[in-house]
Amino acid sequence: MDSTWTIKQIQSYIESSEWTDEIKIVLQNDKRKGVQKLIQYYDKQAKLKQELNQQFITMSRFERENWESGKQFIAGVDEVGRGPLAGPVVAAAVVLPADFYLLGIDDSKKLTKQTRERYYHYITENALAYQTGIIEPVEIDQLNIYQATKKAMKMALEKLPLNIDHALIDAMELENLPFTTDSIIKGDQKSISIAAASIIAKVTRDRMMVQYHEQYPHFHFEKNSGYGTKDHLEAINRFGITDIHRKSFLKNII
Question: Where does the record place a coiled coil (predicted)?
Fold first, then answer.
């Protein structure tokens, strides 16, 4: 690089290589405002990447401890859909390889829809195994949501095609499993495996609710995912409930 390069050429060079201190030193001698803005931008990106890398290392602690103790297949387990008035509760179990690396992985609720979809594809392509457990509204009404959630989690674990050595579970205690477990409060923010499971569960359930929207368009399930939004409650008052509503959740509404 030299002063004869256009700003676009400099940016293309950085994008095709890597932002380094050496490149920064060279560019600092270029007083063009556009070049100085590039320095600020790539410095900011480098700092963000460093922070995300540290976050990933911190969130890998539970997995590393179990791998280092000789356990090979560690399953992360999480669920979505405990609170909605309609639709299933969905749990996911995910087993990641020891070399898994995804900067920015986090609790699915903290991610945008586009990011969740992108991470979903990366996780499903790179996981050693993943499965979901789905409990429909009728069974939720029969069991109660707490027991239905536990059943969905166990179902996801039991469907995994691997001999699991240990499970990291978001908040819940699961009994009578043939392997050791850890129940981790806010586990989707503390474990990459649980975070991956939360993304799989969230994307799976959101896709199901989009399909339900096509069947019951008045309720706008593609937007509210079955939660008790104002529009959803108005639709219930106007059209009544559907086959996917949880009657046990609606006792004070209908």
Answer: none
Q: Are residues 145 and 35 in the same domain?
A: no
Say how many residues make up the chain. 254
| Per-block mean pLDDT, blocks of 10 residues, the chain (254 long) | 81 85 87 91 91 97 98 98 98 98 96 97 98 98 98 98 98 96 97 98 98 97 97 95 96 76
Nearest alpha-carbon partner for 76 in 179, 158, 191: 191
Q: Which residues are annotated as a binding site?
A: 78-79, 170
Which tokens in the block code for residue 84?
Answer: 């909605």
Vertex 222 angle, CA 220 and 225, to 5°: 90
Tokens of 28: 């600092």
CA–CA gap between residue 112 and residue 29 (Å, rounded):
39
Helix, strand, coil abundance in the chain, percent, nearest 5:
55, 15, 30
Range of the domain at 21: 7-59
In this structure, which amino acid lies at residue 2? D
Please tell me whether residues 26 and 126 are part of one structural domain: no
CA distance 184 to 201: 17
Task: Tally the C-alpha atoms within 13 A of residue 49's C-alpha that lie toward its C-beta.
Answer: 10
Other Cβ atoms less than 10 A from the Cβ of 25: the count is 9
Give the pTM.
Answer: 0.90
- 10 Å CB burial of residue 104 (0-12, 13-18, 19+) is middle
Domains of the chain: total: 2
Question: Which of 226, 221, 80, 224 is closest to 152 using CA atoms?
Answer: 80
138 vs 133: CA distance, rounded Å: 15
Residue 239 amino acid letter: F
